[in-house]
Write a structure and sequence with these properties.
By secondary structure, the chain is of the alpha+beta class. The longest helix has 14 residues. It has one domain: Nuclear Transport Factor 2, Chain: A (Roll). A four-stranded antiparallel sheet has the order 1-2-3-4, with helices on one face. The chain is built from three helices and four strands. The protein binds zinc ion (ZN). The site of zinc ion has 8 residues, from helix 2.
Length: 140
């Protein structure tokens, strides 16, 4: 079960050409392509954005699917009443190829308010591309 699809993508992303007046990309033109329509994110940056959106929408199935099996949790816990405030990408670098699979790192800041208290999650994450599907490995 996940929350219903929004009009504007929570990740705040997508190329500028997709941005609507007033800011933000349409969900269906942004992470909705990956969460709902089954397209594969073309790189770790888009995958990272889509995972942020999946957290906002509490889409557990997508989060697990895009988590490398060796690090994937049994279930993803969502803080009750959490209000996600935004995602800011700090850095994105493709880090080469390991065992025939492309790897990348994304550094980001996500802000969330839980029980009236604001939190700032700052993480540099590493990702791997497994047969065309980018997956989150872990924090660096
Ligand atoms: Zn998005």
């Amino acid at each position: 079960m996940s929350l219903s699809a929004p009009d504007i993508c929570p990740c705040g992303g997508a190329p500028s050409a997709l941005k609507r007046k007033g800011g933000g990309a349409a969900y269906q033109d942004c992470c909705g392509r990956y969460l709902q329509n089954g397209l594969l994110p073309p790189d770790a940056l888009h995958l990272m954005r889509s995972r942020y959106t999946a957290f906002v929408l509490e889409n557990q199935a997508y989060l697990k699917h895009t988590w490398q099996a060796a690090h994937r949790p049994e279930s993803v816990n969502f803080d009750e009443g959490a209000k996600w405030l935004g995602l800011e990408i700090k850095d994105f670098v493709e880090t080469g190829v390991q065992n025939g699979q492309a790897t990348a790192e994304v550094e980001f800041v996500a802000r969330v308010r839980v029980a009236g208290k604001a939190h700032r999650l700052h993480e540099r994450s590493c990702f791997v591309c497994e047969e065309g599907q980018w997956r989150y490995i872990e924090a660096v």
